[in-house]
Amino acid sequence: MGQPTRGTTGHNRLRRCDRWLVHSPRVRTALQSAADPLVVDLGYGALPVTTLELASRLRTVRFDVRVIGLEIDPERVRTAQATKRDNIEFALGGFELAGHRPVLVRAFNVLRQYPEDAVAAAWTLMRSRLAPGGLVVDGTCDELGRRCCWVLLDSQGPISLTLACDPFAIERPSNLAERLPKVLIHHNVSGRPINTLLNAADRAWASVAGHGVFGPRERWRAMLNLLRDSGVPVEPPRRRMRDGVLTVPWATVAPQPL
């Protein structure tokens, strides 16, 4: 179920999301406790490189993880099947997940190409196909993977929003607005929660400009601390990552009617 999308892809394009998945306590718990550690990479594009990379990275969490790349375009599936490896498969499928019940679904740069009113139904369908304790990641990134945003969902609905970037590749946090998931991108207007968050991040970024002498990564960490001190429920960093990551509960940015 779904429609063909442009299918652009590239090596390491989704590395920031993959790194986040590998170190997310909730994702690690879901994978490690699953009876069948099945992961679906939905809409991998013209080439299956990001599916192969996802499998390699998740095996640091659980060595026996199985990954199935699903595409709605039969020609893309045929191309990918030539690269089949142990515990990695490719098949025809869409939001119905081809009948599988995975513990994790990564759907990147897919719903970005759909109308906003299609998001809720796609989310509901994917969530209904999850294994117990399963999770969905719906995200968008630029062509080089330097600016990324994604929503984490479970069977009940969205849990959190994450903004991630190469801090060397932005002038201010709101540069990430162009890569917001489809469910949020049209709500980035004055008075809406996502716009309020981005404006607060920009103000905090400007306020900690002095930390820039130590590099943009240190400045990003200082920005997170300032946001947290001001009452924004920013998730504490799991470790000193090279990525600039900002994660907030979904309730902080949940869209309101325009």
Task: Give structural notes.
This protein has an 8-stranded mixed β-sheet with strand order 3-2-1-4-5-6-7-8, sandwiched between helices. It is globular, with a radius of gyration of 18 Å. The longest helix is centred in the C-terminal third of the chain and has 15 residues. Helix 5 links the parallel strand 4 and strand 5. The protein has 9 helices and 8 strands. The protein folds into 2 domains: 151 residues, Vaccinia Virus protein VP39 (Rossmann fold); 69 residues, no CATH class. The protein has 258 residues and is an alpha/beta fold. It comes from Mycolicibacterium agri (Mycobacterium agri). This is SAM-dependent methyltransferase. Keywords: Methyltransferase, Transferase. GO terms for molecular function: methyltransferase activity.
The major pleated sheet works out as: 8 strands, mixed
- Largest beta sheet: strand ordering: 3-2-1-4-5-6-7-8
Please count the beta strands (DSSP E, at least 2 residues each). 8
CATH class of the largest domain: Alpha Beta
Globally, the shape reads globular
CATH topological fold name of the largest domain:
Rossmann fold
Compute the number of helices: 9
% residues in beta strands: 15-25%
